[in-house]
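Is this the right way to post C-alpha cells for a design question? Let me know if I should format differently. Anyway, here goes:
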C-alpha cells in the first residue's frame, strides 16, 4: 500500500481537461490506494495546491486558462518543491526540455500505458517520502557532504556554494547528491536514470542531460568548461574527486 502511514495515503492532485482521461487516471490511482483530487484546468490546480498541498502533482501540458507549464512555473516561483509529473501530447525535444527547465520532475508523452504512469508515480512519491524521513531525523541534522567549495546538507536538502545557498529543484538535488556520494565514479545516463529517477525507459536518457546542464548552470563559473560535474566522453558523467 503506497502510504506514508497506514492511515495516511499519499495524496495526488491530477489536472487534466479531458474528462475521460482524467476519470480513468483518477480511478486507477484510487484503486492503487492513493487519495486523489481531480480538476479540469490549470487555474483550479494552482488554487487547490496552494490551499491544500498534495504529495504529488500530475499536470496535463495543454489545459484551458492556464496550462501545465504555467502552473509548474507559478508553484516553483512560490518555492513549492512538490514533485510534478507532466503529461503531454507533444513529443518534440523542445517541449520536453521546456517542461524540465520550468521545474517539472518528470514527464510522460501521450499515449502512455497505465503501468508506466503508475511506475512514475511510485518513483516520485518514494523520493518525496525519503525527503520527509530525512527531514524528520534529528540525529542526521549535521550530515554534510563537501567537495571543495560545494557543501550539501543531506537531511535539510540544502546546497551551498562558496557560502551562498543555491535554489535546486527536488530532482536537481537528488542528482547532485548521487554524484556527491560517489565522487570520481563514472555513471552512464541510463545508470543515472535508474538511480535517481527510479526507472529505466528507452528514449528518456536526455532527461538526465537536461538536469546536468541545469546543475552546471548553477554550479559552474563557466558551464561550457565544467570543473565539478565532468563529462567522460563515451562513458557518461562524474563528479570530480572530493577536494
Amino acid at each position: 500500500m503506497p502510504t506514508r502511514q497506514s492511515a495516511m495515503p499519499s495524496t495526488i492532485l491530477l489536472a487534466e481537461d479531458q474528462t475521460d482521461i482524467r476519470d480513468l487516471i483518477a480511478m486507477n490511482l484510487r484503486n492503487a490506494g492513493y487519495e486523489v483530487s481531480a480538476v479540469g484546468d490549470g487555474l483550479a490546480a494552482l488554487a487547490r495546491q496552494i490551499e491544500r498541498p498534495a504529495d504529488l502533482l500530475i499536470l496535463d501540458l495543454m489545459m484551458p486558462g492556464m496550462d501545465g507549464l504555467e502552473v509548474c512555473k507559478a508553484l516553483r516561483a512560490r518555492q513549492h518543491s512538490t514533485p510534478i509529473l507532466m503529461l503531454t501530447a507533444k513529443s518534440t525535444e523542445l517541449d520536453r526540455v521546456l517542461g524540465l527547465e520550468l521545474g517539472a520532475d518528470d514527464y510522460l508523452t501521450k499515449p502512455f500505458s497505465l503501468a508506466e504512469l503508475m511506475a512514475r508515480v511510485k518513483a516520485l512519491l518514494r523520493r518525496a517520502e525519503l525527503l520527509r524521513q530525512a527531514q524528520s531525523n534529528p540525529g542526521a541534522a549535521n550530515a554534510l557532504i563537501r567537495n571543495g567549495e560545494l557543501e550539501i546538507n543531506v537531511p535539510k536538502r540544502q546546497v551551498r556554494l562558496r557560502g551562498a545557498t543555491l535554489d535546486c529543484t527536488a530532482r536537481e538535488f537528488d542528482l547532485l547528491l548521487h554524484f556527491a556520494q560517489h565522487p570520481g565514479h563514472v555513471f552512464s545516463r541510463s545508470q543515472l536514470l535508474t538511480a535517481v529517477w527510479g526507472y529505466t525507459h528507452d528514449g528518456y536518457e536526455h532527461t538526465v542531460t537536461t538536469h546536468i546542464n541545469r546543475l552546471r548552470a548553477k554550479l559552474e563559473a563557466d558551464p561550457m568548461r565544467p570543473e565539478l560535474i565532468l563529462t567522460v566522453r563515451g562513458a557518461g558523467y562524474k563528479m570530480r574527486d572530493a577536494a
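Format looks fine. Someone answered above. Worth noting: Helices lie at 19-31, 42-51, 68-77, 93-101, 114-135, 170-181, 189-197, 206-219. The radius of gyration is 18 Å.
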